[in-house]
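RECORD TYPE: inverse folding
INPUT: structure tokens
STRUCTURE:
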């Protein structure tokens, strides 16, 4: 795994995919933008990832990663209710393959984020 991508994905999951009390945007990017009147500000829960960066990661995970990599990312970072063995079973792979896919996802995300910053 790539450490800084791992950190960003943890914060992305916290920003956009965690349970939060009502009135705090519900973890939904659109709701948070409405709540802040469209102003992109630092995450409402003390996040170190800017909301626009979280939106970039959301787009990458949803649209640009192959489905098997996207599934592993969502299971690893957004599913806090399952044990590791349940996560890789849900992904239809072994533990080793699960971590290989997670590393591939980190590489893809890093490359796509770097490409966006370079453009």
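DESIGNED SEQUENCE:
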């Amino acid at each position: 795994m790539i450490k800084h991508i791992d950190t960003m994905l943890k914060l992305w999951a916290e920003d956009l995919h965690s349970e939060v009390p009502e009135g705090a945007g519900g973890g939904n990017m659109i709701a948070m933008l409405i709540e802040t009147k469209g102003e992109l500000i630092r995450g409402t829960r003390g996040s170190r990832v800017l909301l626009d960066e979280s939106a970039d990661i959301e787009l990458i995970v949803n649209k640009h990663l192959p489905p098997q990599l996207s599934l592993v990312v969502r299971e690893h970072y957004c599913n806090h209710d399952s044990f590791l063995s349940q996560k890789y079973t849900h992904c239809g792979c072994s533990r080793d393959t699960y971590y290989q896919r997670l590393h591939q996802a980190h590489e893809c995300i890093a490359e796509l984020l770097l490409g966006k910053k370079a453009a």
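NOTES: Residues 95-118 form the longest helix (24 residues).
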